[in-house]
Structures are given as structure tokens and as C-alpha cells.
Amino acid sequence: MATERRKAVLLFGAPGVGKGTQGRILGQIPGFFHLSSGDVFRSIDIESPEGQEIYKYSSRGELVPDDLSIRIWKQGLDARATLSMYKPRKDILILDGIPRNVEQSKILEQHIEVLKVLHLTCSDEEEMIHRIRHRAIRENRADDANESVIRRRFEIYREESSLVLSCYPEEIIAHIDAIGSPAGVLLACLEQLVPVQDAHFRGE
């Protein structure tokens, strides 16, 4: 029997644009559950075979292979459902960091139904690099501390990740300016998400 697809909203945008910040805030609202692929990956034991594979790629600023990424992401989602942190029938997933390319978006179609894509935009790449390096110091995230690795992540985003938007109907994509206060960006996100959650609660 086919697995029921989970309702989801995608937080999308370049590295440092604020996806994690908005995802964490939105995840505090009843009926939403935030799942960051970065958090899932960082929670894996670095000494495990999968942990070693992930570190091999992330330390070079390269994307983890699609099949490994989706497998680990699905394990993380299922574990949270088993622990009742995530309630599939009630919660809308707020996904941050996945899908990262067209192939991942195709694989994910088996697992999720995308209700909305929030595309966080920022035209100032240097500002985003500054954000990432500041976050690396604050949160002791070694994968974000190396500037050459950060710039490589932007190259990959331009080459692969930005094409993901073409996988979804234009009518479900909302472009949101991510420059400004977190509260201001949150308000713009909520203006898009309130109708989505209302429809979900009504069973539409």
C-alpha cells in the first residue's frame, strides 16, 4: 500500500537568507512542525558510516548525494513521528534545506504534498555570507566557518538549487524579501501561511 504523503510547506532560498530562523519560529505555532535537514544531518553520530559519508561532502561545501540525503531525512522524519513530536494527521511540515535540487524534488514527491513554497530572497550575497560566518561563531558550527566552503555553497545554489523553483506551480510560490527584521519577514510569511493552515484545518 502506498505511503500517505505528508502536507508540507517549503522554505526556500540561498544560504544565510534566514530559512532556519523563520522555520524555528513557525514551528512554535500549533499545527506546524519545523524540520531542518541541516539539524537532521548534524544530529547523526559522526562516527557512524552515514555520519562519515555526510562529513566527507559537507566539509568540502558539496551537497550530499540525493539518495543518501532523502534516506537520512526520511529516517529523521519517521523518528520524530514515532516520538509524537510530529503528528502527521494534524501538522503541516515546514521544511528547510530540502529539496536542494530537481532530482531531490522528484524523489520527495513520493513522501510529501507541497502546499506552498516560501521563497526567501536577498540580493546582497555579501550580507548573507556575513550572516553565515556570524552564526558559525555563535553556534560553533564548523561547517559554516570556512569562507571558501561558504562561497562554494553559493555556487552550488546558483547552479542547482535555484532550479528547484521550476518544479512547482507558480501559483503556490510566494517570493518574500528576507532583508529586514525577523519579525517583518515572519509577518510576510504568515500572510501566506494562514490561508494554507485554515484550508488544512477545514480538511480541504
UniProtKB/TrEMBL annotation:
It catalyses: AMP + ATP = 2 ADP. AMP binds at residues 37, 42, 62-64, 104, 141, 153. The lineage of its organism: Bacteria, Pseudomonadati, Planctomycetota, Planctomycetia, Planctomycetales. It comes from Gimesia alba. It is found in: Cytoplasm. One of its GO terms (cellular component) is cytoplasm. Its main location: cytoplasm. Its EC number is 2.7.4.3. This is Adenylate kinase. Catalyzes the reversible transfer of the terminal phosphate group between ATP and AMP. Plays an important role in cellular energy homeostasis and in adenine nucleotide metabolism. Pathway: Purine metabolism; AMP biosynthesis via salvage pathway; AMP from ADP: step 1/1. GO terms for molecular function: AMP kinase activity; ATP binding. Consists of three domains, a large central CORE domain and two small peripheral domains, NMPbind and LID, which undergo movements during catalysis. The LID domain closes over the site of phosphoryl transfer upon ATP binding. Assembling and dissambling the active center during each catalytic cycle provides an effective means to prevent ATP hydrolysis. Keywords: ATP-binding, Cytoplasm, Kinase, Nucleotide biosynthesis, Nucleotide-binding, Transferase. The gene is adk. One of its GO terms (biological process) is AMP salvage. It holds the Pfam family ADK.
